[in-house]
Amino acid sequence: MRNNKWVPIISSALVIGLLSGCGGGAAAPKGTAEGTKEESPTKNEIAASLHATIETKAENNTMIIHYKVKNLSGKTQKLTFSSGLEVDYIVYDLQGKKVKQYSDEVMSTQVMKEIELDSNQEIGKDFTISDLPNGRYKIEVFLTAKEEEAKVVTDLIVNNAYSKGTGVLIGQIDPHTIEIDMEGKKVAFQLTENAIKQLPLLKEGEQVSFLYKENDDGQKTIQKFVFE
Asked: How far apart are CA 4 and CA 113, in angstroms?
C-alpha cells in the first residue's frame, strides 16, 4: 500500500540525487544532528556548524531517504571530496552489525571535487533503499568531505517490505519457480527476474537465504537471494 507521508525517522539500496539551493531561516525539523568539528582546525577545515537533517517516506516497498546539510556558520565554507561519492550511509541491525553500506554497492569516480557552500545554503542527497527485510535498524548518513562529516544517526523502521527466509534448496520446478525445504516443509516460491539471474550461484541441497513477499492468495515470491 502506497504511503507518501514523510515521517521524521531514518530508513535505508539505491538512487542518489544531488539537490542544492539557498535555504531560509526556518526551524529545523526533528531528527537532526550537528556536524562534528575538530578542536584545532586548519585553514581548510570547517570551524563552524553544519546542520544535518533527514526525512524519510515509505513507498511501494521501498524507503526513500532525504538527507540535507545546511551551512549555519554565517560565512562561505569549502567542502573537499576525493571522489564522486559525496554522501554515504551505513545500516546496522540492533546488535550493531553492519547490514549494508551504500559505498560498497556503487561505483564512483576518483576525482577530487570542491564545493563552496554559502551561508544558509543547503546541499542534499536522496537514497532509495529497497532490499531490507522488515525490522528495526540504525542508520547513519554522512558527508564524505575531508573537512566535515555532518553525520546523523537515528532509528530505521522498515514495514510492509520483504520478509527474510532460509531453507534448503530442493530444486527448480519451472523457469520461474523453485522449491525450498523450510523446517521440513516443502514450499514453492515464484522468482523475480533478479532472483532468476542468481540461480546459477546456488546448488541443490544447500542452505539458502532470501528476501520474499507473500500476497493475499498465499503466493510467495523471492525478490533476491542473500549471500551472507
From this structure: 34
**Tens of pLDDT along the chain (228 residues)?**
444 444 443 333 333 333 344 344 433 334 433 333 334 344 344 444 799 999 888 787 788 999 999 999 899 999 999 988 999 999 999 999 999 999 998 887 788 899 999 999 999 999 999 888 888 999 999 999 999 999 998 888 888 778 889 999 999 999 999 999 999 999 999 999 989 999 999 999 999 999 998 888 889 999 889 886
CA-nearest of 85, 83, 68, 66 to 127 is 66
Distance, CA of 67 to chain centre:
11
Residues 40/138, Cβ–Cβ less than 8 Å: no
- Set out the domains of the chain in order of their start, with CATH numbers: 17-158 (2.60.40.2360), 163-226 (2.40.50.140)
Question: pTM of the entire structure?
Answer: 0.62
User: Taking Cα atoms as reference points, which of 18, 36, 144, 141 lies closest to residue 80?
Assistant: 144
DSSP secondary structure string for all residues of 67-108: EEEEE-SSS-EEEEESSS--EEEEEE-TTS-EEEEGGGT---
